[in-house]
Amino acid sequence: NDCLFEGQHTTVLLETMAGKGTEVGKTFEEISAILDKVNHPELMGVCLDTCHVHDGGYEIVENLDAFLDTFDQIIGLKKLKALHLNDSKNPLGAHKDRHEQIGKGFIGLETFRAVVTNPRVNTLPMILETPHSELSGWGEEIALLRSFLGDN
């Protein structure tokens, strides 16, 4: 509540977490409970991190729409304001938060195709948080993700 005030023009986002250690925000219920307690909920939103939800045990690979339905029922899709896109070095539910390059981890390329083409989320800002040592790596990933848009 200390960073929220009436008339503010900035939206504060809570990021989904992988559930390692004592992290708060590893379940949609925890995030919803936080949002329910703030003085200005209209100034709050959620940033969904693909690696974090996968490592946290949410199934996004097999059925993205069911995952989004669950998010909508617990938090509400209207609260979803941004996506962090990254694959995961770990299997589902590992609770480790180890980002991987798009398509080179356990989430896989087809899931990212489903995300960037899904009308429920494809207009949201999408931010890459993948490990690369040179800028060209991110450029290649951006081109790859954009290529999926031509598939529609």
TrEMBL record:
EC number: 3.1.21.2
Cofactor(s) listed: Zn(2+)
GO biological process: base-excision repair
Keywords from the named record: DNA damage, DNA repair, Hydrolase, Metal-binding, Zinc
InterPro entries: AP_endonuc_2, AP_endonuc_F2_Zn_BS, Xyl_isomerase-like_sf, Xyl_isomerase-like_TIM-brl
A GO term for molecular function: phosphoric diester hydrolase activity
Record-stated family: Belongs to the AP endonuclease 2 family.
The name this protein goes by in its record: Deoxyribonuclease IV
Species per Swiss-Prot/TrEMBL record: Lancefieldella parvula
